[in-house]
Write a structure and sequence with these properties.
By secondary structure, the protein is α/β, with parallel strands linked by helices. Helix content is 41%, strand content 11%. The chain has four helices and three strands. The protein has helices spanning 8-36, 71-91, 112-120, 134-141; strands at 40-45, 96-103, 152-155. It has a three-stranded parallel beta sheet with strand order 1-2-3, sandwiched between helices. The longest helix has 29 residues, at 8-36. The chain is globular. The two termini are 26 Å apart.
Amino acid sequence: RLFENFNLDEWNKEVNVGLTGAMLCSKIFGSEMVKKKVSGTIINIASDLSVIAPNQNLYKIKNQPKFTKPVTYSVIKHGIVGLTKYLASYWGEKKIRVNSLSPGPVLNDQSKMLQKNLKKEIPLRRLAKKNEYIGAIQFLSSKNSDYMTGQNIVVDGGRSIW
């Protein structure tokens, strides 16, 4: 969808699901941790598009109507990182850690053309396998990251360095 044609109802629906949904989940779980006086960890899932803008040229396909990455995707993912930082400062003294993970593209039945175009943007020249984010999530959930809060871990094969 072109930005010029993006309507307010679509915007509200997508922001409500993606960003408001993350806020509500954090509110429910964080509030329970505070109420029960237990420390804990909240991990929000953002995207590499929380730290870079989408390359709209990736979505150009010959003989197809123009398609772009929707504006809401980037706005929601940037918002999740902001929510993460806010909650880390809000609940830090309660020993509730809040971090986010920003994964890059995952190989998952994309068209061969999109895969080829994405690989050109990633220094490792490949998309992630579905299981390659497990280690980062385990780290953020473990005692090994006890002194870490309000951070956004980008695991994107290097895509965001260019």
